[in-house]
From TrEMBL:
Domain Metallo-beta-lactamase stretches: 42-267
Gene3D superfamilies: Ribonuclease Z/Hydroxyacylglutathione hydrolase-like, Winged helix-like DNA-binding domain superfamily/Winged helix DNA-binding domain
Keywords, sorted A to Z: Hydrolase
Protein name per its UniProtKB record: Glyoxylase-like metal-dependent hydrolase (Beta-lactamase superfamily II)
Biological source species: Rivibacter subsaxonicus
Coiled-coil regions, chain positions: none
Signal peptide boundaries: none
GO MF term set: hydrolase activity
Pfam families recorded: B_lactamase-like_C (PF21221), Lactamase_B (PF00753)
Record-linked InterPro entries: B_lactamase-like_C (IPR048933), Metallo-B-lactamas (IPR001279), RibonucZ/Hydroxyglut_hydro (IPR036866), Sec-metab_biosynth-thioest (IPR050662), WH-like_DNA-bd_sf (IPR036388)
């Protein structure tokens, strides 16, 4: 546990759900944990006792919040959940906080299996549909050109990025063709409790967190994590964006929630200390922005130059693409504020200097 984590409280201690099993967070709310084949090696998923009326009639069962990526180990874990955790009841609906593969990967499979509804924000549904048809963001020729323009000159790495033309679709082979729209301020009745939708930006097109006032719980998705900072990146399809500003603004949407709120994050353990964690995340980005500004005062700086400034560890290709996106995001926040100037050199590479 790092020093910042000591400032938070973990009601369930070190307990973690076994594969295919759950830990009960509250009556009618279960915590699942499934593996991911990345350095970030797990995702938390949630089962909420539910009752809906849909094409099947009045259905008692369980709502699923987030799905894991579409691979055989994850689907095998889901089979164990179906056998052991649903208490003989069906899935009432699938809810996704956002469109990233670890959250939406199995949505189509689950919806087809149970004949249930699918709930997600409109922006994320459209982004997922596009992503399952063609690579976006961190693979293919456009991504390689984007990273190259920001100083990534390692031809081996660029060749690997170009070759990742099926990256998103390999983990999200299909997306449900029909959805129910989640949007900021919507109050969603799930079983006996009402959950307020809180939209967040910067990490995904329109990330939806869910807050239950009656239970004092926030399903935070990826917007507030206890151990790591949320990835905030500039991608090739929106190369002039300012997602870090969007993310920091979005964090303040959680500030009005009670201090005792139990946060159910997508990665890490459930915790209390929401306001403390918001302050930690803001301080983290303030420190990184100061590091970026200092580097740009010394000499014209590319996003690639900043990797060793922002990430003091060896990165694999998966991590490099996210790290490049984050470096550009920090540069862009300072550039949008007027603290940096940006120039494209004769080599086509963008470099930033202090204004």
């Amino acid at each position: 546990m790092n020093p910042l984590e000591h400032q938070l409280s973990y009601p369930h201690g070190d307990a973690l759900p076994a594969v295919g099993a759950s830990i009960e967070i509250a009556p009618g709310l279960k915590w699942l944990r499934m593996a991911l084949p990345f350095a970030l090696d797990h995702i938390n998923l949630w089962l909420l006792r539910d009752r809906v009326e849909d094409a099947r009639g009045l259905v008692e069962g369980w709502a699923i919040v987030d799905c894991g990526i579409a691979n055989e180990p994850t689907r095998a874990a889901w089979e164990q959940v179906f056998a052991n955790e649903l208490e003989g009841l069906p899935v009432t609906r699938v809810i996704c906080t956002h469109m990233h593969p670890d959250h939406i990967g199995n949505a189509h499979w689950l919806v087809e299996r149970f004949g249930c509804g699918f709930w997600i924000s409109s922006l994320d549904w459209h982004a997922a549909q596009l992503g399952s048809l063609r690579t976006t963001g961190n693979g293919g020729a456009a991504a390689a050109a984007h990273f190259g323009a920001h100083g990534l000159i390692d031809e081996e790495a660029l060749a690997k990025v170009r070759a990742r033309t099926n990256y998103y679709a390999s983990m999200v082979p299909a997306v449900p063709t029909v959805f129910h729209r989640l949007q900021d301020g919507l109050r969603l009745r799930i079983g006996a409790h009402e959950w307020q939708c809180i939209a967040g930006y910067g990490h995904a097109p329109e990330h939806i967190a869910l807050y239950s006032e009656t239970q004092g719980m926030l399903i935070s998705g990826d917007m507030v994590l206890p151990r790591i900072s949320t990835n905030v990146s500039v991608w090739d399809m929106e190369p002039e964006s300012n997602p870090l500003q969007q993310y920091l603004d979005s964090l303040e949407r959680y500030r009005p929630l009670p201090a005792a709120t139990l946060v159910l994050p997508s990665h890490g353990r459930p915790f209390t200390g929401l306001h403390t964690r918001i302050d930690q995340l803001r301080a983290h980005h303030d420190e990184r922005l100061a590091d970026v500004l200092a580097a740009c005062r010394e000499r014209p700086t590319t996003a690639s130059d900043l990797l060793e400034v922002l990430f003091r560890r060896k990165l694999d290709l998966h991590q490099i693409t996210f790290a490049m996106g984050e470096a550009v995001a920090h540069l862009h926040k300072l550039w949008f504020e007027g603290a940096l100037r940006r120039e494209r050199g004769a080599d086509g590479v963008l470099r930033f200097t202090a204004a």
